Known about the structure:
single chain; alpha/beta; Rossmann fold; 6-stranded parallel β-sheet; 10 strands
Amino acid sequence: MIGVFDSGIGGLTVLRWVRQRLPQAPLLYVADQRWSPYGAKPSWLLQQRCDAIADWLIHQGATLLVVACNTATAHCVEALRKRLTVVVVGVEPGIKPAALGSRTGTIGILATENTLASSRYQDLAARFNPNTRILNQPCPHLADAIERGPDNPDIDRLLHEYVPGLVEAGVDRLVLGCTHYPLVRERIQALIGSGIRLIDTGEAIAAEVGRRYQSIPGETASTRLLTTGDAQRLRKLIQAYPSLNAAFSEADCAQAPAALLDGPM
Ligand code: DGL
């Protein structure tokens, strides 16, 4: 079984690619909506949540974990890999494909404050200096606004705040450095115009999962989406975002068990 988690619905933008890549694999997803967003939470809290969810997924039979969250990967993936024996696949902003494809040499990164402030991200970005000019745009509240549904007017308000400056600065690649942002990809593309390419690493992550997952003979396809928040709300969100509605069904959604709800407030 493959265990996948994120602070909320963002990781589903990775999970849909994983399912396409491995249609027979059993998939168990945890949306940690009770503790979302992760974008500005202290590192110790993120580590506690990642540890609790990872341990629980392994207990359920996961033999590979996907940390489908840039923020959680940036702060917690190393500690998870040190402690656990299963394969842990993380996600990170696609600086490499953006830098390699850029003609202007200027790329923009949209991500949470926590991702951009992490030493893991800064080390990654440093590898592309000085050849590529990387413009980091923290996006406070954007993942949270996306969690409130596509009709939430804050989404467009925040995008108008964060995106146009990067276009004016001459980026020709814009990295979606948070797994929530592909859910509003069309709106971002409409803001930047067709001359700037959006970079989303969901498909590449799924390819890595495909290379590293050892399937167990006799296993059959299943998708279970659990939330530490409200299952009814998760169902509504899946219905409301067309790309999620096309990939997942309301019947896949359920409440996460009590064991996953406890944590520091
Ligand atoms: N989807 C997450 C990420 O990729 C987390 C966003 C949040 O919870 O703030 O960074």
